[in-house]
Amino acid sequence: MTRYIRTAVILFLISAICTALCAVVNEVTAPRIAENVEKERISALEDVASGLAIGEEVQVGDGTVNYYIPLSDGSATTGYIVELSSSGYGGAMTIIASYSTDGSVLAAKMMANSETPGLGKKAEEPWYMEMFTGLGGDSLLPASKSDLSADDGAAVSGASITFGGVSSALIAGSEFVKGLGGAV
Amino acid sequence: MSHMKELTKGIFKENPTFIIMLGMCPTLGVSTQVSNAIGMGASVIFVLTCSNIFISLLRKVIPESVRIPCYIVIIASFVTIVEMVLHAFVPSVYEALGVYLPLIVVNCIILGRAEAFAGKNGVLDSALDGIGMGIGFTLSLSLIALIRETLGAGTITLFPVGSFSGVITVPGLSESPVRVLTLAAGALLLMGYLKAFFQWKTARSNGGEA
Lengths: 184, 210
Hints:
Order of helices and strands of chain A: HEEEEEEHHH
Distance between the termini of chain A: 68 Å
Number of helices of chain B: 8
Low-confidence stretches of chain B: none
Order of helices and strands of chain B: HHHHHHHEEH
Shape of chain B: globular
Radius of gyration of chain A: 21 Å
Low-confidence stretches of chain A: none
Number of domains of chain A: 1
Oligomer: heterodimer
Number of helices of chain A: 4
Number of strands of chain B: 2
Largest interface: A-B, 30 and 34 residues
Shape of chain A: elongated
Distance between the termini of chain B: 29 Å
Number of strands of chain A: 6
Structural class of chain A: alpha+beta
Largest sheet of chain B: 2 strands, antiparallel
């Protein structure tokens, strides 16, 4: 009995020391991480805004659309930026995309993700999101690899789950924006 | 002299990738770009050295029956620390390493060295073993990444410094690269050739038949 208690106490102490060590490092790094994430988000919003004025953020949180921000040309709402949540091969992914009011994709950017380097991580490269640009309004967004051209299909080869996650999120964003229309 | 041996054995004689064949999953997964390989290698050196020191210090305290859970708790803590530090100070490397960073916890090299060396040897030797094995892993990973990226993509990706973007384009190869090398099949193929080369070198230096 004493042996079991001794073993449990040692395991507990090692775990407690390790937890304390992680807590100290977290205390130091957490503000810097939050700052980096916010900087990255603001930079992504500016990138996808396509030169339009960025309005006020409106929270949604329906599981796919986290929030949206109206875009205007100075006089009227001409589009929206939408932050989308989806899942890929490595788990949760966040995408920031801008749409015109008819639901067509203006630009998109992959944010937080744990996709495989060299495969799903390609979704972070600008050419990847260009496959979706201009689609979603009159023309349909690609829902699977078979909807892509041979070149684009070959480029996303080996990362079908990531592609599926990105395309389903962008389709959901397009439908959401169509629902909003031109008025806020 | 024996301390020096502990440090250098991991670089060639007991190289974790080419000789002991440990940590194959991150080796094949992360070796698509040189910068990823260097980032992963540096993280493994840190975790391996720190966990070896910690485990060696506690080797007389840790009960035999729960040594593996104890090792995992210690290794996971150092991996968490590396994750937080990279996320805060080198976010580009943190993003590039993705899922392979938390997977260092189950990297066979780290648990393997804890079990085979740090749990039985003194602090100095364990630290040197960690550094040497970590350097050996980093060099192997960087060599594989250099070949795969140069031939498979026609580029060499390092870290951006000042006006240098960090990407060197290899003329000729960037226009018509050997794409298969960027895929898992190409990585396995290359691993096979490099393993054969190291086997031949080892056999030759031992005076055996190649």
